[in-house]
Write a structure and sequence with these properties.
4 strands; SecD/SecF_arch_bac; transmembrane helix; 4-stranded antiparallel beta sheet; Protein-export membrane protein SecF; 61% helix; alpha+beta; Multidrug efflux transporter AcrB transmembrane fold; Alpha-Beta Plaits
Length: 320
């Protein structure tokens, strides 16, 4: 049975030739994400901003304008209504009311009384207070920072400081780029999407470490090669693995996005974006940064190999 190859077995592409372009794209993603975050901000879910969430089921497609008109007339503050998966399932978000838990419960009862004749069943009702939401935001931010720091320390101990620095900067690019994605799309940012951000960091560093390991191996094996040749060689040798892993993961995520339901759609959308940006950063950001951070490949010893696999001790020796 013939094996179909989607990528050359031994590619010989000059990835480092485009390093200025890929780093410029990365800088554009970082700048654009930070500007959008400052100007627009994230669409925080109830987990982070506090408030009341009511999921209801209607008899047939929900009349969103009617729901919106009735609830707005109650003067409960900001109210957002959206379909949740099926046309007869909707989510109602009501901003936190002034006062204690009793005031929130009164708002819930008031809203239910207003729409009761339009609803078949109330599937869930949740309330998150402002203090809990603030604590969750702080804990989420701390978890992200500690994850990045831990990854950087791990790479530093496993490789060298240049590798750790490049990996950390690439991860920062991925995290900020993903936050920019959620800012631009205004997909609700909640605990599930925060988990997507941390998952993206883990996926990206796994890809980066595989490439870095091949860089270190090639640097030790081919001492006569210039550092750009070593980096290109490592990228070419791992490219098929990188693309196949990313594509197969994307196929699974696309199936989850279209058929997994509304509950995990935001989480899945973040992961899809993260796979794309994570693969890009591993190849187009982390490796070029190694070059600019002064990674050296100095000849040493008499038994090192050149790019043909011959050792220096064999140079000039007749082959038997």
């Amino acid at each position: 049975m013939a094996l179909i190859r989607f990528f050359p077995e031994k590619p010989n592409l000059d990835f480092l030739k485009t390093r200025r372009i890929t780093l410029a794209i990365a800088a554009l993603i970082l700048t654009g994400s930070m500007v959008c975050f400052a100007a627009i901000g994230l669409n925080f879910g109830i987990d982070f901003r506090g408030g009341t969430l009511i999921e209801v089921e209607t008899d047939g497609p929900a009349n969103l304008p009617e729901f919106r008109s009735r609830l707005t007339a109650l003067d409960l503050g900001e109210v957002t209504i959206q379909e949740f998966g099926e046309p007869n399932n909707i989510l109602i978000n009501i901003q936190r009311q002034e006062g204690d838990a009793e005031a929130q419960q009164e708002a819930i009862e008031e809203a239910k009384a207003e729409i009761d004749d339009m609803v078949v069943s109330y599937r869930r009702t949740e309330f998150v207070g402002p203090k809990v939401g603030e604590e969750l935001r702080e804990a989420g931010t701390l978890a992200t920072l500690l994850a990045l720091l831990g990854i950087a320390v791990y790479v530093w101990f496993r490789f060298e400081w240049q590798f750790a620095g490049a990996a950390l900067l690439a991860l920062v690019h991925d995290v900020i780029g993903t936050i920019g994605f959620f800012t631009v799309t205004q997909i609700e940012f909640n605990l599930a999407t925060l988990a997507a951000v941390l998952t993206i960091a883990g996926y990206s560093i796994n890809d980066t470490v595989v490439i870095f390991d091949r860089v270190r191996e090639s640097a030790r094996k081919y001492k006569s090669l210039h550092v750009t040749q070593v980096l290109n060689k490592a990228l070419n040798e791992t490219m098929a693995r990188t693309l196949m892993t990313s594509l197969t993961t994307l196929l699974a995520l696309l199936c989850l996005y279209f058929f997994g339901g509304e509950v995990i759609r935001g989480f899945t959308a973040g992961l899809i974006w993260g796979i794309v940006i994570g693969t890009f950063s591993s190849v187009g950001v982390a490796v070029p940064l190694l070059y600019y951070m002064g990674l050296k490949n100095e000849p040493s010893g008499s038994n090192t190999q050149d790019d043909t696999g011959r050792t220096k001790a064999q140079e000039g020796v007749p082959q038997v």
